[in-house]
Amino acid sequence: MLVYAPSRSRKTLQKGITLLESLVAIVVMALGLLGVVGVQMRTLADTQTGVRRAQAVKLIEDFSERVRANPNAIGNTASYTIAWASTLGSPPACAIDSGFPTTSCTAAQLATYDVDRWLRSVRANLPVGDATVFVSGSDARQLGVMLSWRENERAREGDSLADTSAYKAIFSVTGTSTSGSVTCPAGKICHLQYINLTQRCIPSGPLVFCSDI
Q1: Which positions ≥6 away from 77 have C-beta within 8 Å?
Q2: Distance in angstroms (rounded) separating the CA atoms of residues 170 and 201
Q3: Of 102, 89, 70, which Cα lies nearest the Cα of 213?
Q4: How far apart are CA 149 and CA 54, in angstroms?
Q5: What is the helix (H) or strand (E) element at residue 163, kind and residue range?
Q6: Does the reported pTM lie above 0.70?
Q7: How far apart are CA 110 and CA 212, in angstroms?
Q8: Cα dist. 185→81, 176, 178, 191, 198 in Å?
Q9: How buried is 49 (Cβ within 10 angstroms: 0-12 exposed, 13-18 middle, 19+ buried)?
Q10: CA–CA separation, 82 vs 86, rounded Å?
């Protein structure tokens, strides 16, 4: 003998199935939206990294121009070298904030002034930015300029600590004439570039005269 369920029970069961299907659809849609948001966040992080690196290149170009403007940069190499987390001091009295000296600055004073102004610019334009400048171990007429800023790149999935260290190995400089080694600080992204020191000399009869002002 066949027994049929009341129509009210069938309607209740049907409503339950519809609710379950709706919940599954919501979960699937939420997972899809999370995937899209994740891709956008990764794209944004990559874009920010590119922008910061472009800023680092411009800052090093600015430093290079300052070095070229010094009449005797080679003779004042020590005035350009700075370490990570260097304390900012007062610029020389012969220079003012506009960048034009009130009195004649020596090449050493000009170098000290330029480093102070430039380092302030680095820390103002890069997130948690800092810089180190060192003499190249292979060429005493070259300066290595390394900038660092807060890391916003996520490690690739599956990368080990050794993989991350290998990624930053290019920023580990050994055998410099100013220190044993220069490395990228932990948790930071770095950009390294080398610039040449200059010295402007003026012929004076049979001799060559290099001004120190």
Answers
A1: 135, 140, 143, 197
A2: 36
A3: 70
A4: 12
A5: helix 161-167
A6: no
A7: 10
A8: 18, 17, 18, 12, 29
A9: middle
A10: 7
CA angle 162, 167, 171 (to 5 degrees): 115
Q: Are the C-beta atoms of 73 and 201 separated by less than 8 Å?
A: no
**Residues 162, 175, 82, CA angle at the centre, nearest 5°?**
95
Helix 107-125 × helix 7-69 angle, to 10°: 170
Task: Tell me, letter by letter, the H, E, C secondary structure of 82-115.
Answer: ECCCCCCCCCCCCECCCCCECCCCCHHHHHHHHH
Size of the chain in residues:
213
DSSP state of 210: -
Ordered per-residue pLDDT tens for the chain, 213 residues: 544 455 555 555 555 567 777 787 888 888 877 777 666 666 655 566 778 888 999 999 999 999 998 888 888 898 999 999 998 888 777 754 445 545 677 888 888 989 999 999 999 998 889 999 999 877 788 999 999 998 765 555 667 777 777 767 766 776 665 556 888 888 888 999 999 887 765 555 555 455 544
* Residue ranges of domains in the chain: 36-152+161-209
Cα distances (Å, whole numbers) of residue 130 to 103, 133, 178:
30, 10, 18
The HSE-up count of residue 141 (CA atoms within 13 Å, CB side) is 6
As to burial, measured by CB atoms within 10 angstroms (0-12 exposed, 13-18 middle, 19+ buried), residue 92 is middle
